[in-house]
Amino acid sequence: MVKLRLRTKFLFSLIFTTAALTTTSLLIVQSYAGKHARQDIDEQVENATLTFQQFALQRQTMLAQSAEIAASQPNIKALITTQHGPTIQDASSDLSEMAGADLFLLANAAGKVMALHTATDFNRETAQTSLSGTLGRGQSRDWWFGRGHLYEVYLQPIYFGSPQNQVLLGVLVTGFEVDQRLATGTARVTSSHVAFRYGTTIIASTLPQDQQNELATHDVLAGVRAPRMQQVRLGAESFIGTTVELPPSGTQAVTLTVLKSHDASTLFLRNMNRLLLVVGLAAVVSGGCLIFVISDTFTRPLAKVVSGVQALEKGDFGYPLNVHSRDELGEVTSVFERMRRTLHDSQQNLLHAERLATIGRMASSISHDLRHPLTTVLAYAEILSEGDIDEGQRKDVYREIRLSVNKMTELISSVLEFSKAQEALHLVHGDLIETLEHTIGTFRLHQEFRHVQITVSHEGSTEGWFDFKKLDRAFRNILQNAAEAAPPDSARIQIRVLRVNDHVEISIADNGPGIPKEIRDEIFQPFVTYDKVGGTGLGLAVVLKIVQDHKGDVKIESSGPGGTTFKIILPVTPVATLAASNVPSHATISGCSMQSRKAS
Question: Which residues contact 197 (CB under 8 A, 6 or more apart)?
Fold first, then answer.
């Protein structure tokens, strides 16, 4: 798991908070601005529609008045009374130019077209059909569509004399074409894109051709008779638009579609969003740098304290702690410095007291254990000095002196073994069972241990890399400890060796009364003894040291009235010990080990 420093957590939390607040603000601003922009576009489209409707109404009024004035002219009445088509066609040419209309038509009282003037290919047959339809519906205004051209026309009756006489001479029709020129002018007035349609056919539009073709197939804004705002995408551009029907009503509805580019209108909003994003990122980055500097200023003393605590954990009481402030953190540092000095002084006093106590216990134990064999040596030396003993007695005296000297040597060896720090082991490859059997054989040579019944069982391979000389000493100490604890007349020791994965487990059980609970946790400490006369209390301490030198472990597996069981765990390949011993490579050790075991 990744361990984050307090400064990093503080920095990340502030950066996350700043980024979250900035993002939330941007989203709120974007949402509000988007809604406001949509409302503005809707209002602009609606205003554009109303503007065109007012413009169209003014134009219709003007055209109606113009047609009424033209129909009341005497020359128009005189011309229509000739009832001669070619004459009327030729003579009305100047009149059509004066009228300024895109379509100028004269028909007799029966509704027959007598003259037609237009700049397009809107011919007489199409005009006759359209005129008949309009007269049949009794309309004075209508939409005429033919050969791809759309006209808004006004019909004005021509009367003989005053209109009250109701003597109809003919009909004057003036019309204005809905074309690209009208679409361009309307778009300029409304500041929008427009499209005029007759039914579903687009007559004129200011849209590009590709968008115009897509609009022709679009159903969203087609055939709408009531104004309503719709959003539509034409090509890669989004528009807000509405469609209104233009009067008068006819066989096909003539509609005007007004489109306002949503993308163009929101371009400023998108630019503002990008600017706000850049400003937000810059604020996060600059704020992060500033927060890093500030947090480093506040957390550096705390990191110094943490380093001091870690150094104290490793036993370094001299790690420098510099107090530069008088705030809470400076106070904590000062308190920790005082606590460290107090702890160091207490530890030194405790070590001194323990050292004195250990020296006292060791001196008491060693003086007692050395005094008895020295007394024996002194006594037998006095016997030898008398010179009146036979050869048999002399040998017995020598044997007793040798046993006493061996006891003192064993005591001194135990003290030296315990006092040494971890040293390089002399590792050789061999079988642990062989060493154990050798130790048992040597153990049985002692007169006081010949009655002990010892059984050995093992499972699996027990070969490995060990210092067999030291293990022999450890096995002898624990066997002696077990034999001395067992009943003298029925002492039994059971040894079981088991290979488990990459280590060997050795269980040594006796049938003694067990270890008292009050010393069970301290049994491996030096100078701790129980129910033994003349014991030094170093036997199990030496066993623990030798096993730990092999990177193993020894513990009390069970202890009670039925006996005590010690378990020794030894790795078969102590890699760490090999590295610490600076011994040769594995292959070289293997060869030397076999030779060493054969020589021994």
Answer: 203, 222, 254, 255, 256, 257
